[in-house]
Design goal:
Elements (H helix, E strand, L loop, with lengths): L1 E2 L2 E11 L2 E7 L7 E3 L2 E3 L6 H13 L1 E15 L5 E14 L8 E8 L14 H12 L16
Parallel strand pairs: 2-7
Antiparallel strand pairs: 1-2, 2-3, 2-5, 3-4, 3-8, 6-7
Keywords: Hydrolase
InterPro entries: Nudix_hydrolase (IPR020476), NUDIX_hydrolase-like_dom_sf (IPR015797), NUDIX_hydrolase_CS (IPR020084), NUDIX_hydrolase_dom (IPR000086)
GO molecular function, one term: 8-oxo-GDP phosphatase activity
Length: about 150
């Protein structure tokens, strides 16, 4: 969702057996860039629901959001002002099914390996590195800090 020039984005680190799932994007703004499952929040959508939806759309997995590493405010590689809500999740269902027109590859890697990628291989590399450092140092917050969207 874009509001006043600000793009609201959700991102999820899916962790299993000390590895994280990364995807290689095929979107015009991020061709051949590795990232975590992520995408824009849709108009009127709850942040937590948006995160689960994006994971399902990009990977085929259903996830439970366990915690958050926080909110990241930055200018993207495409010069958009982004506010990104990042979560850590676990797989609770589904199976890996990559959406071929948007995602061209996926792989499980150790969390440490994310720090070894070249900057030009990652989408918004500085933010991914901040997220990776937070995960490695277990700097997490409860998802209860995100109140469910209220309907009026």
């Amino acid at each position: 969702m874009t509001q006043n020039g600000i793009v609201l984005v959700v991102s999820v680190s899916i962790i299993k057996d000390n590895e994280v799932l990364i995807i290689k994007e095929n979107k015009p703004s991020a061709i051949n860039k590795w990232n975590m499952p992520s995408g824009r929040v849709e108009q009127g959508e709850d942040i937590l629901n948006a995160a689960c939806r994006e994971v399902k759309e990009e990977t085929g997995y259903d996830v439970n959001l366990l915690k958050t590493t926080g909110v990241y405010n930055f200018f993207s590689d495409t010069n958009h002002h982004v506010i990104l809500f990042h979560f850590v999740g676990e797989i609770i269902g589904g199976s890996l099914q990559i959406v071929e027109n948007e995602i061209i590859d996926s792989k499980w890697i150790s969390i440490h390996e994310l720090l070894q990628f070249e900057k030009n291989e990652l989408r918004n590399a500085n933010v991914l590195r901040q997220i990776t450092e937070a995960i490695l140092h277990q700097k997490f917050f409860s998802t209860t800090c995100f109140n469910k969207q209220l309907t009026i």
